[in-house]
Amino acid sequence: MSLFLHYLSMPYLLEGIELTLEVTALGLGGGLILGLILAGMQLSRFWLLAAIARAYTVIFRGTPLILQMVFAYDALPHIGIKLPAVLAAGLALACNEAPFIAEMLRAGVLGVDRGQLTAGQALGMTPSVLMRRVIAPQAIRTMIPAFGNEAVSALKNSSLASVVAVQELTLRSTQLASSTFDFFSIFFASGLLYLVLTATISVIQLFVEWLLDLDRTTRRERKLADYLPWRRVDLATKLELADATVADPDPAELADTPPLALTREERARRATTIARNNIAVEAKDLTKSYGPQKVLDGLDLTVRVGEVVALLGPSGSGKSTLLRCINHLENWDAGTLRVGGRRLGFDENGKRLSPRAIANERASVGVGMVFQQFNLFAHLSAKENVAGPLRWVHGMTRIDADRRATELLDRVGLSHRADALPRHLSGGQQQRVAIARALAPNPSVLLLDEPTSALDPELVNEVLEVIRRLAIDDGLTMIISTHQIRFADEVADRVAFLSGGAIIEEGPAHEVLTNPRNPLTARFLSVMEADKTPEAVR
Ligand SMILES: Nc1ncnc2c1ncn2[C@@H]1O[C@H](COP(=O)(O)OP(=O)(O)OP(=O)(O)O)[C@@H](O)[C@H]1O
């Protein structure tokens, strides 16, 4: 025992730890940088970069680290690169770690929900903003356990540096054992030192996981989480609300008045006004196919400023695709789309715009979009979901963006849930936050893609009420894909019925819905009437 304790505190072995940590740090740090580059290459749109990264991965993952260390130390001098042993071992370890780290990074990035990326694009985020603000914060959280594993394995692999005569812990233990023949005490002491190092890495990993955990709930824990850059909450508001449970307002109370519905005369007046307004959205002969399947087939649609158009039609008729084209989340094959008179997706010379230019165009044209699955940014509070894009895309100051977010959350009846994460909100609340987020930059047109389809029946009304007020009170131009026939009748000025990627019937909402001329429209409406669930016509 005394021998074991003697070796455990022996300066000769302890100095070996320094070199072990040096090689590990070089391997992990270098591996992270190289891994970032490799992951970027693999995720890039350029196949050649992806192929080079893949080839690198095959070579460095498929050959033993010990050979790579020998190569870095003994073969590189032949091409004039002579590295000190520690650096050569660190370089080999970095090159070996890089493909593993790259795969972790790639998995983290690909693991972020695609709906959130689409929502970010729809809000006008450029690819780099999307990466920094949406993908990276979420990917990093999921990668921490795997990165902890990789750090432990790099530390243990650093012992192979002994092959190029780096005097790290394992080499020193071996040397000591061969001169004293006291194998058991020396290797037991050295094993314990390794264990202390790996346990330290595990503790750091657990601490980082704890720090990044957005779900912590106790008061003390919450304090730390609140300072995370992506979970900035309004501490003053939170303290006030901490002990008070505030109930959601009744949907009908969102504006202190009963649900709105227009009378026949009001509808007629509205129709006359709208007919005089400028064109907000114009699709001409729009055609789009997915492989052999034609999804939009020469579709024409004109929507005027202030008009609310409901898109109806059976599942697969192309409603979502049309909305996605209007926001340029999809490319189309032929035809033109103009929003506010501007031809989307092309410069003045008719050349296709880059993804970055399209993002900027989206932000400046002002088309907001609300999705069926809400697509809120999962790592951000409700308030940050609204305020964040205003700062990152529209350059608003933090104070102005926060003020606007508070105002909009108040408008959708959710100011008391401003600090809640999306997963702590009900579906209806999430959709109301999503509506607030889409409204924040003051869009000229709001597209709503089946905004209530993913909601439980009892939550549908609270969302419909918010939309109803936007249409009737605020006069917002809206195109809504919906299966809610009654809602379409109450809110829409016009209904367009799609079938097979084209509009086969359109006209004033009440007229089309009560007296359809096309047999397909009539059949669809009667099926919807017979069974209120949309599945009936799917
Ligand atoms: N990314 C895609 N790749 C291949 N096919 C697609 C893609 N997106 C949509 N489609 C197909 O295009 C057709 C139209 O889809 P779209 O989502 O526009 O219909 P929809 O009218 O909105 O239907 P729903 O009411 O069910 O949402 C469908 O047949 C669908 O399978």
From TrEMBL:
It is a multi-pass membrane protein; Peripheral membrane protein. The chain crosses the membrane at residues 20-39, 46-67, 183-212. SMART domains: AAA. It is found in: Cell inner membrane; Cell membrane. One of its GO terms (cellular component) is ATP-binding cassette (ABC) transporter complex. GO terms for molecular function: ATP binding; ATP hydrolysis activity; transmembrane transporter activity. Keywords: ATP-binding, Cell membrane, Membrane, Nucleotide-binding, Transmembrane, Transmembrane helix, Transport. Its main location: membrane. Belongs to the binding-protein-dependent transport system permease family. HisMQ subfamily. Belongs to the ABC transporter superfamily. PANTHER family: AMINO ACID IMPORT ATP-BINDING PROTEIN (PTHR43166), L-CYSTINE IMPORT ATP-BINDING PROTEIN TCYN (PTHR43166:SF35). This is ABC transporter permease.
